[in-house]
Write a structure and sequence with these properties.
The chain is mainly α. 63% of the residues lie in helices and 6% in strands. The strands form 2 sheets. Strands 1-6-2 form a 3-stranded antiparallel beta sheet, with no helix packed on it. Strands 3-4-5 form a 3-stranded antiparallel beta sheet. A hairpin with a 2-residue loop joins β3 (115-118) and β4 (121-127). α10 packs parallel to α12 (374-392). The longest helix has 34 residues, at 295-328. The radius of gyration is 22 Å and the shape is globular. The chain starts with 9 loop residues before the first strand and ends with a strand.
Length: 398
């Protein structure tokens, strides 16, 4: 906490009423959250330059090509987040439906001539000078719209019908993301955010734990079945090939599993304290597109396991600040919205690092605030702005 007053303070939400008259202040601002966001961004820029300078020099004749683009958009997005934090987040209640519909329409436009391909996948939308992935908007849409629905449903959220309505709203966005942008990882993230918000809002956790257990068991059975039945050559489906690469990366070391094997080499060669900043060998072409979703492997190679743990600690503190804001938010809408942001950030960090260390098949999920990508930074900073906006409405009594 950034507050330095020594006297004991207690936080209260809009549902709490005090029988005694106390002086209230509304000037709380979560500077700790701002600090960790800036720290992660600066660290990400340093690692991005270290990771991408060789490739940028070869491709563009400028070793700072990726760094300059990312630095410019990062600074602009941090300013944007601070501006958003000054706006009352409750105004989103008026635009929740519009945001949901806009996300659906924009994702559908990817299949039109406005859609643009990159790295073999058509997931981008080209609107003149603006190019972005509309699936990122869908993440914010589910983070805003589901809390809006939950608040307006009230006690109906406890019923099976209420859960099905909420689940259907999130699942529809996930389905559109998968069908129209061919982005399974984003679809999974949207669905998991939906499930997480329903879990947070529902008073009975037992049923969710049972469902989670059943899903895990079925997943393990499915993996064992695929491992026993799929041939070494895999299948015509690149997603099934990714599962085979995950299960037997050494059998595909020269083809589909090349990136995974090289990332593991990078982590292993780094040891505990690493080769030193800028001294990575694997970034010299061995790990393709190292500045994107495999950047954590280069962090571990240059800074070692110690550096990787520091990164995880920064993410842990970021999630702690989001948890604190969600717990002390002035209303249910704000609390659930920040909970959705918490789930989103946690999912992306877990999925990215799990892929890098080969604990799960490749998903293409980026590492928040560190991986290269303007669209990712833009919408992540927008979410941070919303979290700061909720934090700014926290009242405390003296």
């Amino acid at each position: 906490m950034s507050n330095t007053k020594s006297q004991k303070q207690s936080y209260r939400t809009s549902s709490g009423r005090s029988n005694t008259r106390r002086k209230t202040r509304a000037d709380y601002y979560d500077y700790s959250l701002v600090a960790v966001i800036v720290l992660l961004t600066c660290f990400g820029l340093i690692m991005l330059y270290s990771t991408s300078s060789y490739t940028a020099e070869l491709k563009y004749g400028d070793d700072m090509f990726f760094f300059k683009k990312q630095a410019l958009i990062s600074v602009a997005c941090i300013i944007m987040a601070l501006v958003i934090s000054k706006i009352n987040y409750r105004i989103l209640n008026r635009f929740a439906t519009i945001l949901y519909v806009a996300a659906v329409v924009l994702m559908m436009l990817v299949k039109t001539p406005l859609g643009q391909s990159a790295n073999g996948a058509q997931r981008w939308l080209n609107l003149g000078p603006i190019q972005f992935q509309p699936a990122e908007i869908a993440k914010i849409a589910v983070i805003v719209c589901l809390p809006y629905m939950i608040v307006h449903m009230g006690k109906k959220v406890k019923t099976l019908k209420g859960c099905m309505v909420l689940g259907g709203a999130g699942a529809f966005l996930a389905l559109i993301a998968y069908v129209f942008t061919d982005n399974l990882s984003t679809a999974i993230i949207i669905f998991c955010i939906t499930a997480g918000l329903i879990f947070v809002a529902h008073p009975d956790t037992k049923i969710f734990l049972i469902i989670a257990g059943v899903v895990i068991v079925l997943g393990v059975i499915g993996v064992l079945f695929l491992n026993a039945t799929l041939s070494v050559d895999g299948s015509g489906s690149f997603r099934l090939r990714r599962i085979m690469v995950w299960l037997h990366p050494e059998d595909f070391a020269d083809t589909w599993g090349y990136q995974t094997i090289q990332a593991l080499y990078a982590i292993g060669s780094g040891g505990f304290f690493g080769r030193g900043l800028g001294n990575s060998i694997q970034k010299l072409g061995s790990v393709p597109e190292a500045q994107n979703d495999m950047i954590f492997s280069i962090i571990c190679e240059e800074l070692g396991i110690f550096g990787g743990l520091i990164v995880l600690m920064l993410y842990a503190y970021l999630l702690y600040r989001l948890f604190f804001i969600a717990q002390n938010a002035p209303d249910m809408f704000g609390s659930l919205m920040v909970s959705g942001i918490f789930i989103h950030i946690a999912l992306q960090v877990i999925l990215n690092i799990a892929v890098v260390v080969n604990l799960m098949p490749n998903t293409g999920v980026t590492l928040p605030f560190i991986s290269y990508g303007g669209t990712s930074v833009l919408f992540l900073m927008a979410e941070m702005g919303l979290a700061l906006s909720v934090a700014r409405q926290i009242k405390f009594e003296e």
